[in-house]
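Provenance

Sequences were taken from public entries as deposited. Structures were produced by running a predictor on each sequence independently, with no templates supplied. The record for Carboxypeptidase A6 from Momordica charantia is shown for reference.
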Amino acid sequence: MGRPLRSLPPSPWICFFFCFCFFTCFQGCLVAAEVDPNNIRLTPIDRDLYHSSVDLMKEIQTVVHRHPDKLTIETMRSGNKGYLAEIPVVTYCHGRKNIDDLSKFRILLSFGQHGRELITTELALRILLLLSGEQFLPHMDQASLNNTLANLVIKVVPMENLNGRRLVEAGDLCERRNGRGVDLNRNWSVDWGKKEKDYDPYEENPGFAPFSEPETQVMRKLALTFDPHIWVNVHSGMEALFMPYDHKNTTPDGDIAQQMKLVLEELNNLHCHSRCMIGSGGGSVGYLAHGTATDFMFDKARVPMAFTFEIYGDGAASSKDCFKMFNPTDLGTFNRVLSDWSAAFFTIFKLGPEYLGDTELHSKGNLDKLVSIDEYLEGYLIERSSRYGKKREVLELGMQEMRTYFRLFLLSSILLLFMFCSRISKNKFTRPLVSAISI
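Predicted structure for Carboxypeptidase A6:
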C-alpha cells in the first residue's frame, strides 16, 4: 500500500502567485473595458427633452391650426421602388394674403436632414412658436420684428428626413441617412458622386444618381418653385456658420460672397459668442463634401445667400456615442442652444433684406435660371410621375436612355450638318468648267 496523503499548508509563495495573477487579470479586464468601444456606455435619447417624431409633428400641426392667419402646412410626397417619403412644409406669411407675392422676401429653412440630429428639429419647433407669437425673444423690439416679418414669406421644413429619424428612434442612434441608406446631403447634383480617400459609405452614401431619393426630389422641387432669396440648411455636430462651397476649398467670388460673410460675422458676434467657425464648408471643416444641398442652392437654384448652420457639437463625446455628440443632454445647454439660435434666425430675417437690397429682391425670378437639358427632363418626369401616380421606375430606367438618345440626336445632327457643308464647299470649288460653246 502506498503512504496516505497528508493535507499540507499552502506555501505563501503559491498564494502570492495566485493573487498576482488574479490582480493582473482584473486590471486587464478594466483596461479592455475602457478601450473596447463596444463597452462604451451610450447616451440614450432623453424623452424629457426631446419630442418623438410623431409628437413633434402633432405639436407643429397644433400650432399651425391655432394661427391660421399666419401659418399653413402641407405635406409633399414622393417615392420610387416602393420607398415613400413625406416632407411637411410650414409656410409663414402675415395675413396669408400674399404668399405668392414675388415682391416679398422669401426664406427657405430645412431641419432634420440627418436623422440623428434631433436638436435641429426642436429648433424648428421653437422658431415656429416665435413666428406664431406664442413665444417671444428677450431683448428684441417686438414692433420692429413685426414690421420685418410683414415683408417676408418663410417656408420651414421641420423634419426633412422622417424615415431616417424613425430609424434613430428605433435604436440606431448614429444613423444619418434616409430610410434606405442614402445620405440626403450627398444626393444633389453639384459635384455628385465624387469620393474622397477617407470616404465612408455608411456616412456618405450618395445614392446611385443625383436626386435618386424622393426626399431630395421634393426639396429640389420646393426650392425651384418657391425661389428663395435665403436658404439655410441646419445641422449639428459642431458650432459653425458656413457659406459655399462644400465641394472645394474656396468661397464664391464677387460682392454677394462679401455680403454673406458679413452676415455670418454679425451672427457669430451677436449669437454664437464668437465661438463659431466661419467660412466655406469645404475649407473650414477639414474635408470636402460632394453633392450637398447648399452648393446646389447657390450654383443651380441661384439662391443669393445659401448657408449651412451647425448649431451644436460635443467634441469630447466618443464617436460611438452619437446622441451625445450631436445633441445637448442637459436642460441648461438644451435651452441655451434653442435660445441663441432662434435669435440668430430672427437676425437673419432682419439682415437678409437689408444686405440684398431692392435690386436683388426685384430681379429674382425663375426666368433667369439656366437649367440644363438633363435637369429639365428630370424635373419634367418627376412632375408627371407625381401628378399621375406612375411608378418612379421611369426615372431610373428611362432617364438615362432619354439622355443618350438626345445626345446622339445632337451629335448626329452636327455631323450631318458638317458633312452637308463640306459637300457644298467641295462642289463649289471643284466643279469642272463647261464651255458655253458647243464643240
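Residues 53-365 form a domain with the Aminopeptidase fold (CATH 3.40.630.10).
Residues 102 and 362 are 8 Å apart (CA to CA).
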